[in-house]
Design a protein that fits this description.
Elements: H1 5-18, E1 26-29, H2 33-49, E2 54-57, H3 60-69, E3 84-87, E4 91-92, E5 98-99, H4 106-114, E6 119-124, E7 137-141, H5 146-158, E8 166-169, E9 171-172, E10 175-176, E11 184-189, H6 196-204, E12 209-212, E13 214-215, E14 221-225, E15 231-236, E16 249-253
Parallel strand pairs: 1-2, 1-3, 3-6, 6-14
Antiparallel strand pairs: 4-5, 5-13, 7-11, 7-12, 8-11, 9-10, 14-15, 15-16
Bound molecules: ribulose-5-phosphate.
Ribulose-5-phosphate is lined by residues 30-35, 87-90, 100-106, 109.
Length: 255
């Protein structure tokens, strides 16, 4: 079967991430088309090599996919720790900070990533940016009083170093889209975010905001799949959670 260039890139990144998987691991399974590739390749490896791994899914969509492909799952509440999470991203920058949530799964994705020893992002080159923000930033909010929360987010943006300030409510087939956790999503059209850590903290301080799609200092590695099947790895050498200023990043190119 010949793959489209986009799928070639996603599958190359996923195959490289699969080499990090060891027998006996508990794995966080991300959401989206790239993470879907990882789940498919993982299922093939489980069947081929009979490795015993357990997945923790980050969305109902990933639960369905993993179940269909025979990848064993457990709930996050039933495990003490996740060894490795592999997930996609909507944008990543040179500090390995991310925008996630294009697939509306940012809340479970962030909880799973935070519970993981290591978060590895798989992506193609289109997700690499000099500054985060061209992709609308998803912010998950509770439904109660959501228009007040939107106003509070708007007021916050007025004092933030961003390029644009438009906010939209994400819609599904019948009004506002409801996430797996029963919330709404605001999409913040910011163009460019000049201080992502500050914006992430400020958003989380607003009552009614559950989480934003800014993943700051959470990823330890980004694997970039190329359309020719090669990969590039960007790795954070220091432990996740250390400040960006201290983070030294190492690049290595596959041949
Ligand atoms: O954050 C996500 C879902 O909430 C996805 O990881 C992100 O949207 C990337 O998806 P894709 O791999 O399909 O481009």
């Amino acid at each position: 079967m010949s793959l489209s260039p986009a799928d070639q890139a996603k599958s190359a990144a996923s195959a490289r991430a699969l080499t990090l998987v060891e027998d006996g691991m508990t794995l966080g399974l991300g959401t989206g088309s790239t993470a879907g590739w990882f789940v498919r390749l993982l299922s093939e490896r489980i069947k081929r090599e009979r490795i015993r791994v357990t997945g923790v899914a980050t969305s109902s969509a990933t639960v369905w996919l993993a179940e269909e492909l025979g990848v064993p799952l457990c709930k996050l509440e039933d495990v003490e720790r996740i060894d490795l999470t592999v997930d996609g991203a909507d944008e990543f920058d040179a500090n390995l900070n991310l925008i996630k949530g294009g697939g509306a799964a940012l809340l479970q994705e962030k909880i799973v990533a935070a519970a993981s020893g290591r978060m590895v992002v798989i992506a193609d080159d289109s997700k690499r940016v000099a500054r985060l923000g061209a992709f609308p930033l998803p912010v998950e909010i509770v439904r109660f009083g959501w228009t007040s929360t939107r106003r509070a987010v708007q007021e916050l943006l007025n004092g933030m170093d961003v390029e644009g300030r438009e906010i939209s409510i994400r819609t599904g087939s019948a009004g506002p889209l409801v996430t797996d956790e029963g919330h709404f999503i605001l999409d913040l059209h910011l163009g460019q975010i000049n201080d992502a850590p500050r914006l992430a903290s400020a958003l989380n301080a607003i009552p009614g905001v559950v989480e934003s799609g800014l993943f700051i200092d959470m990823a330890s590695m980004v694997i970039i799949g190329k359309t020719d099947g090669k990969t590039e790895v960007i790795e954070r050498v220091v432990a996740p959670g250390t400040s960006v200023d201290q983070a030294e990043l190492m690049r290595n190119q596959d041949s």
